[in-house]
């Protein structure tokens, strides 16, 4: 097992870099703008982007919305620039459209309205050049490989927004009465995967499932039934669908589960216990390694996808946030294969 994993800690406003062979933290970037959430690697420019959603807190309870994205040199381990997203507020999800060379970022509100949406940023000038409203707060989203459409996770809203990115307008809604969580898209872009219902702390959801959306027809074409509620999905480099399921026992968060599904049949092919509240999922490009950021434990479970065994647990940050009084110690992740 080789490579480096960069992991965000919301509680400590930091990014840790782990050597996956030794499990050692080899670098620690601190004093970031408060509430770093997601990170994304831009290989063309050799930089990472890190969104800062709130001044403190979390989706359910937070201070003022953030309005910045840090640009980070992963070699020097330092912030080299700041992208201003205002008037878009509460930046969160990040998607790089390499074909159109646009960095897309979701946002929760706008200075002129309560509607969220996505903004398009020129990675060269680092200026906002596009904006598409979703009619509600938007947290995560996916973009089709041709860069023409986006489907947004609106957390508590009873619908998924369908956005025309070329003409910068919302073109439809897909009903999801219980809300949705972190979405993903198939490698060929034909299907998008949205866990539902949305998460409510301390509660066990009814009929948890993953909605499978045909991105050409903008409609639900299948439903994957889950054992527990899910916070996240991710499509690995081999096409398998990863689902991060959470569990509650007597109102308290318990060990979660990483479930893996075949994308052709939507059938379960493997599962393993992981840490509490797997908020973010990632995988190595070849699909051999899976990573789950267990935010309530401040740890990352490293999973051998061939055996479905947790081979390592990386401790990121176990401290409780001084504001929320919960551990928000592991969220966004980027995997760097060893050269």
From TrEMBL:
Gene3D superfamilies hit by this protein: YVTN repeat-like/Quinoprotein amine dehydrogenase
Q: Out of the domains of life, which is the source?
A: Eukaryota
Query: What InterPro entries is this protein classified in?
Result: Host-pathogen_enzymatic-act (IPR051200), N2O_reductase_N (IPR011045), WD40/YVTN_repeat-like_dom_sf (IPR015943)
Signal peptide limits: none
Task: State what protein this is by name.
Answer: SMP-30/Gluconolactonase/LRE-like region domain-containing protein
């Amino acid at each position: 097992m080789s490579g480096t994993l960069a992991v965000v800690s919301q509680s400590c406003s930091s990014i840790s870099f782990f050597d996956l062979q030794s499990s050692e933290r080899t670098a620690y970037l601190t004093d970031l703008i408060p509430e770093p959430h997601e990170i994304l690697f831009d290989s063309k420019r050799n930089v990472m982007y890190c969104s800062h959603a709130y001044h403190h807190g979390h989706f359910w309870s937070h201070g003022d919305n953030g309005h910045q994205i840090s640009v980070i040199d992963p070699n020097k381990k330092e912030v080299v620039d700041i992208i201003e997203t205002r008037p878009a507020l509460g930046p969160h999800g990040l998607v790089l459209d390499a074909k159109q060379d646009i960095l897309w970022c979701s946002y929760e509100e706008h200075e002129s309205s309560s509607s969220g949406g996505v903004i398009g940023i020129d990675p060269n000038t680092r200026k906002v050049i596009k904006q598409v409203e979703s009619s509600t707060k938007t947290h995560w989203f996916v973009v089709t490989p041709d860069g023409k459409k986006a489907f947004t996770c609106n957390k508590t809203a009873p619908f998924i927004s369908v956005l025309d990115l070329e003409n910068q307008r919302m073109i439809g809604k897909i009903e999801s009465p219980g809300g949705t969580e972190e979405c993903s898209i198939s490698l060929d872009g034909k299907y998008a995967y949205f866990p539902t219902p949305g998460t409510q702390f301390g509660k066990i959801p009814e009929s948890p499932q993953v909605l499978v959306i045909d991105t050409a027809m903008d409609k639900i074409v299948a439903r994957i039934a889950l054992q527990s509620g899910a916070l996240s999905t991710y499509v690995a480099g081999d096409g398998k669908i990863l689902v991060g399921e959470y569990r509650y026992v007597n109102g308290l968060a318990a060990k979660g589960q990483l479930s893996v599904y075949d994308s052709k049949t939507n059938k379960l092919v493997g599962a393993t216990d992981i840490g509490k509240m797997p908020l973010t999922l990632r995988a190595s490009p070849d699909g051999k390694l899976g990573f789950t950021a267990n935010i309530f434990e401040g740890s990352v479970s490293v999973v051998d996808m061939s055996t479905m065994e947790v081979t390592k647990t990386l401790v990121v940050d176990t401290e409780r946030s001084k504001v929320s009084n919960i551990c928000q110690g592991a969220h966004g992740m980027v995997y760097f294969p060893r050269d």
